Amino acid sequence: MNYETVIGLEVHLQLSTNTKAFCACPTKFGQKPNSQTCPVCLGLPGSLPVLNEQAFLYAIKVALALHCQIQKIIKFDRKNYYYPDLPKNFQISQYDMPLSFDGFVDIPDESSSGRKRIRITRVHLEEDAGKLIHPEGEDYTLVDLNRTGMPLLEIVTEPDMNSPQEAYDYLTKLKTILEYLKVSDCDMEKGSLRCDANISIRPIGEKKLGTKVELKNMNTFKGVRQGLEYEVKRQLSAVKDNEKIVQETRLWDADKQVTISMRRKEEATDYRYFPEPDLVPFVVDPSIIDSIRNTLPELPEAKVNRYMKELGLSEYDSNVLAGRMDLADYFEACAQVYENKKTIANWVTGDILAYLNTHGIMASELGLSANGLASLLKMIDAGALSGKMAKDILTEAIETKVDPEDIVAKRGLSQISDSEKLEEIIKLVMSKNEKSVNDYKSGKKNALGFLVGQAMRETKGTANPEMVNKILKKALGE
Ligand SMILES: [Zn+2]
Questions:
Q1: Residue 359 phi/psi, 5° resolution?
Q2: Which of 120, 339, 456, 477 has its CA 20 to 30 A from that of 291?
Q3: Confidence band (pLDDT; 50, 70, 90) for 414?
Q4: Which helix (H) or strand (E) holds 291?
Q5: What is the whole-number distance in angstroms between the Cα of residue 109 and the centre of ligand 1?
Q6: Is 41 exposed, middle or buried (0-12, 13-18, 19+ CB in 10 A)?
């Protein structure tokens, strides 16, 4: 029997507000443990929560960007559970009336060149819990409540993904959109963006969902994909061996590359949800929603379309550029001061992106400004630099943070476009390579490429290749 994989994802996003969701405590990362707390987030008796307006507006912004409907009445609920990092013994969340619902994100379709729609079930606002710290080798646990009460968005999809790769594509796309919205630093290492997955398998053609396993503890998108790949294999082999798949939560162990059973899943009713009595339900003025909608930035998909239609870039280049906000910003800054957009795209998606990836930095942290790149490209156009020289200068400019024009001036570099000088060099190359010269004259035309290469070598790449070509051909009697 053939099986299909069914995956749904739950993303938790920490919103980058200055203060917590329901109190005025600061949200700065990496501060002294328990230094950013107050009676409200510590859950002391008699303290009352007040909704952070900025967190609410950010939540609406995300919901709109994900094409969600906004709930008419905003209401919060208590999700009750006992845990050492949750001093109130409940979390303020949203249960039956999430802030928004019925959205979608489109991802590339693996089976065609089209798109696949991943439906968003809900986006709701809640507060984070604290952090337990287990010092290595010690028999005690410490609690840091700085994170308690931080504003979180929970973004839940329908089980619409059918492979680990689709889950990866969805996360990548979602993260890009969230970065464009500037509502979170989306930093997985800091825990600002976390992802849990529900995964099950079922015979192809079966409508009913199989028994799902919840997968946690994946700290990178690559980890999500690997954990899901492992789970697909594990579940398929269990079914093959007539074993029952148990509904449970499993943890991804990135070191051992396996998933480990953590606990049987609690049912939703275990949380005893009830309306939060300290926060009254309220209605959002439609004009507030409209004004947020009107200030949404150009999102990745719209950017890709514009790059292709208005700037004439390829679909591939457009996707690469729009896929990273820092890259798109860099490209657009350069496009302000340099005419040929295709040339900029080549450099940005090529050498520059490779450098960013190797060094794990953002385009805004690059030693070469968009203006600097434009000046480099202008020097190539003017015939002052060959492509190879430009690449060397690019690397030097990035590493030394010196403007390309200054590097060229300082090194006395500029392309040899002086025909007399080139003729001399070509004469030398021809005398050193008589065999190739004779080959060419006897009809082996590809000998020309070799001779051009030798001339470039002789000039350490500083000769103007077009002129070398022309002069060589002439010298060879064409
Ligand atoms: Zn507080």
A1: -100, 0
A2: 120
A3: low
A4: helix 286-294
A5: 44
A6: buried
Of 114 and 248, which is predicted with more confidence?
248
| Cα gap 116→104, rounded to integer Å | 10
Distance 143 CA to ligand 1 centre (A): 15
Concatenate the DSSP letters of all residues of 19-88 into one string.
B-SSS--B--TTPSTT-S--TTTTT-TT------HHHHHHHHHHHHHTTPEEPSEE--EEEE--BTTBTT
Ligand 1 centroid–CA 316 distance in Å is: 47
Kindly provide the b/e burial profile for residues 450-465, where b requires at least 16 CB atoms within 10 angstroms of the residue's own CB.
Answer: bbbebbbebbebbbbb
The pLDDT, as a whole number, for residue 342 is 95
- 127-131, 311-315, 416-420 — which is least confidently predicted? 416-420
Q: What order do you get walking across the sheet with 77-80 strand by strand? A: 90-93, 77-80, 274-275
Ion ligand 1, residue ranges at CB < 5 A: 23, 25, 38, 40-41
Q: Rounded to an integer, what distance in angstroms lies between the CA atom of residue 428 and that of residue 406?
A: 32
Pairing of strands 151-157, 248-253: unpaired
Residue that is written with structure tokens 């065609």 in the block: 112
In Å, how far are 22, 295, 307, 310, 339 from 303, measured between CA atoms? 36, 16, 6, 10, 18
CA distance 299 to 163: 25
What are the extents of the domains in the chain? 3-287, 299-411, 419-475
Q: How far is CA 426 from CA 366, 421, 459, 465, 466, in A?
A: 39, 9, 10, 12, 13
152 Cα–ligand 1 center, Å: 15
| Residue 259: closest CA among 271, 239, 245 | 245
Distance, CA of 344 to CA of 390 (rounded, Å):
13
Q: Looking at the domain covering 419-475, what would its CATH class be? A: mainly alpha
Take residue 69 and report the two structure tokens written for it: 């409907």
Residue type, position 410, single letter: K
The pTM score is 0.82
